[in-house]
Amino acid sequence: MTATSDLGTARPASPDLLRSVFRKHAAGVAVITARGRSGPVGFTATSLASVSADPPMLSFAVGTGGSSWPAIAVSGHVGVHVLGEHQQELAATFARSGADRFGPATAWREGPEGVPVLDDVPAWMVCKVVTRVPAGDHRIVLAEVLVGDPTGHGRPLLYHQGRFNGLRD
Fold first, then answer.
1. Cys-Cys link to 87, which of 75, 80, 83, 160 (CB 3.0-4.6 A)?
2. Residue 89, Cα to own-chain centre: how many angstroms?
3. Contact at 8 Å (CB) between 58 and 106?
4. How is residue 11 annotated by DSSP?
5. Tens-digit pLDDT profile for residues 32-63
6. Residue 107: helix, strand or coil by DSSP?
7. How far apart are CA 106 and CA 120, in angstroms?
8. Top enzyme class of this protein (predicted)?
């Protein structure tokens, strides 16, 4: 049997260890949106996951220190947008603290349940929030899909090694 890593380099659990390991993990990029009291809110997420086919449910994580959390904490509905590789700047805008996320550079419209729906994405869904589960400095949001559109164009945007990337063939 051949060892694939040196156990001598193992480190104790820490926020830095978790970040370092997950930099090696390629993840799809999504933007989560909601209607806030003073307008639309949103953030970039790499934690989107399918949870159940029947009923159709998904999950994502949101930091409780983020500017979108107060709206996500009370919103009954969220928008979930799968980004394409042509949307690196959009992903960066929704990831950047203090950015004007719904400014003139962001094309969007009000969708079902009043949720902000981004234009020109490969796929989007509007979901009903089922629960928010405490998980350290985040909450895991479980949501049931109500309506969506998977017919947009573009290859998926990925996040890997701290950068947005496209798929390579």
1. 83
2. 15
3. no
4. -
5. 999 999 999 999 999 999 999 999 999 999 99
6. coil
7. 10
8. oxidoreductase
Contact 26, 167 (CB under 8 A): no
The domain containing residue 65 runs over which residues? 28-160
Q: What's the whole-model pTM score? A: 0.92
Based on the structure, what is the number of domains in the chain?
Answer: 1
DSSP 84: B
Q: What is the pLDDT of residues 153-163, one digit of tens each?
A: 999 999 999 99
The CATH number covering residue 70 comes to: 2.30.110.10
Asked if the peptide bond before residue 55 counts as cis, ω within 30 degrees of 0, the response is yes
Query: Cα 41 from chain centroid?
Result: 13
Query: Which residues does 128 contact at the CB level (< 8 Å), separation at least 6?
Result: 76, 77, 113, 143, 144, 146
The dihedral through the CA atoms of 129, 94, 64, 29 has a sign that is: positive
Residues 6 and 114: their CA atoms lie apart, in Å, by 52
In a domain, 22, yes or no: no
